[in-house]
What does this fold into?
Amino acid sequence: MIAAIILAAGESKRMGQPKMLLPWGETTVLGRVISAYQEAGLENIIVVTGAAREQVTAVAEQYGVSSAFNEQYASGEMLSSLQLGLRAAMNNPAKAALIGLGDQPQVQAGCIKQVCEIYRKRNANLIVPSFERRRGHPWLIGRPLWNELLDLRAPQSPRDLLNRRGEEILYVEVDTPSILADLDTPQDYQDARP
It folds into this structure.
């Protein structure tokens, strides 16, 4: 089984309002992200909350997925959210975790499925989607490497682990830049809105 950890704890400072809650089609930015993971067949989804905790948790509950609150969200370190999500995933029999971004509503279920299918076929411990040789999200980390990720301390980041184990990464070429796109500013949001 593969768990999905959706990082949704940020303060959205550049956006000026909680970006997870911004309208996106018939739902919200975060609602669209969760939907994409569910469309890809993932059932074990953990949303890591922080800023706007109650509203973000409500979106997760609306989609029937669990959430975990990162008390350290204001530090701005994504690492603490990722580690919290991994600890929550350890409570179930997941053999791997997909790491996704809550502000990536353009992510496509097909790309998520591709990463999961490669894992099921190859059982690699690091699988990263790429578009035009650029790494994106969601990327997958097998359970044998979770402790290595949990041992990182800021200012280290997941990128340090990926760089250290670069030879082991299995890259999945996707045909869409959606794996690279996230929403940071009001302009990003306006340009990307459906």
About this structure: Residues 114 and 172 are 8 Å apart (CA to CA). The chain has one domain: 2-192.
